[in-house]
Amino acid sequence: MKSWFRIAAILCLVCLSVPGAFAESVEYQIERMKDNVYRFTAGNYRSVFMVGDSGIFITDPLGKAAAQWLKRELGERFDVPVRYMAYSHNHVDHTMGGEVFADAGVTVLAHQYAAEDLAWTRAPTAMPDVTFEKELRVNLGADYVLLRYYGPNNGRGSVSMRFMPANVIHVVDWVVVGRMPYQNLPGYDIHGMIRSTRELLGEAPFELFIGGHAEAGGRKDVERYLQYLESLYAAVRDGMLEGKDLATLKADIRLPEFSDLKMYEAWLPSNIEGVYQTLIDQSYFNMREDIRPAP
Ligand SMILES: [Zn+2]
User: Fold this and answer.
1) pLDDT per residue over 11-60, tens digit each?
2) β-strands 55-58, 37-42 pairing
3) Which domain holds residue 282?
4) Separation of 223 CA from ligand 1 center, angstroms?
C-alpha cells in the first residue's frame, strides 16, 4: 500500500442517480492526496484541485452533473473561491460542464490547440479565456500551478499540470498508472505518448502522479507505463517489419511482464490493433516496399 493512500483522507463518498439519457449511477468522491492537493472522482474519471490561500485551482469539470456536485462541495468545504479551471485537453468527456464554473466568474485555461478544437467543433462547454503555447504558470498566493505542453499525444492540446509546492503531477489519458492504455488507442499518437512521457520523466522529479483515470502513483509507476508503451510499440513494429498481419500479431504478442495491469487480457489485442493502425495511418507501413508478407 502506497503511503499517500494511507494518509489520504476520504472526505466524502456519495452515490446518487444522475437523471438523463443513461440514468447511470455515478460515484463522486473527493480525496486529499498530498498537502493542499485533492483528487476529484466522478465514476471512472478523475481531476485534481489545489486549495491555495487566495483561491482554488481546479482542472477538468468531468460533465455538468459532476461539475455541479464539485462546485457545491467546494463552496461548503473551503472558504476561498474557485479562481481558475484548466482543461487537460480538448476531449469532451473531460471538458464538458465547464460552464458551471465559467458562469460563476472562474477563469478558464487551456492550451491553444485544445481551445481551438473546442471552438471549431462548437463543443458544449465553456470556451477558454486564457490560452498558451508551451508553458503557463498560474500563481495562487505562494502556491502555483505549472502547465506544460509536449506536442501531440492524445487529442489536442493535452498538457501536464504540476501543483507546487506539493509537487504533484496531473496528466490525463497519455499517462495511465495501473491500467492498460484505452482500448485501440482512439485519438492517440503512440509516438507522441512515448515522447511526451519520456520528456515528463526527464523533468524535475515529482512526488506524486495523479491520472485522469485509474490509479495515482509514483515515478516508478510512470516509468513502468513508459516501458509498456515502448514494449508494445517495438513488438508491433517488429512484427509488421517481418510481414505479419494483424491477426498474427494479436496471436503472437503477449508481453506477460505487464499482465498485472488492469484490463490486460481485455485490451492487449486492441492496444496491438491501435499501434498497428497508427503505423499504417501515420507512417504508411502499407506502402513499404521493403516489407514482404510473412510466409
Ligand atoms: Zn480520458
Assistant:
1) 444 434 344 444 457 899 999 999 999 999 999 999 999 999 999 999 99
2) unpaired
3) 177-191+219-295
4) 20
